[in-house]
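re: ur question from yesterday

yeah so i grabbed the chain u mentioned. its 122 aa long if i counted rite. heres the sequnce exactly as i have it in my notes:
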Amino acid sequence: MIEEAYVSFELAQLLKERGFDEKCSRWYVANEPQEGIVEKGFGENQFYINAPTQQMAMAWLRTKHIIIVVCPEYFNTDGICSYWGVDIWVGDNYEKLQGDYPSYEEAVETALKYVLEDHYTE
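ran it thru and got these structure tokens back, copy pasting raw so excuse formatting
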């Protein structure tokens, strides 16, 4: 079964700080992030942070800030994916992150964190 890959709570907070305010179908309860992603309710004294999918976050960076994240597959000699990489374009600048990531989702999470912490431009 294919499941949606949502950003981590840490990335959801960074996205919020950077101005991400797109409509999402899931949220984190800010004062109780250990509960994970929830469908928004209206609890007393609860503050919600959008929990976008990784693809939503990548699309937002691409359309609003011209930051492009690509996570290519690398194959072994048997034709089986052995790891994922990370390529990032910020405007005209290209950077390839060091590291071999065991899953696409882990590569995307790493790339998003890197961009939002180190290369974000308003």
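noticed a couple things. DSSP finds three helices and seven strands in the chain. also The chain has a mean pLDDT of 86.
anyway ttyl
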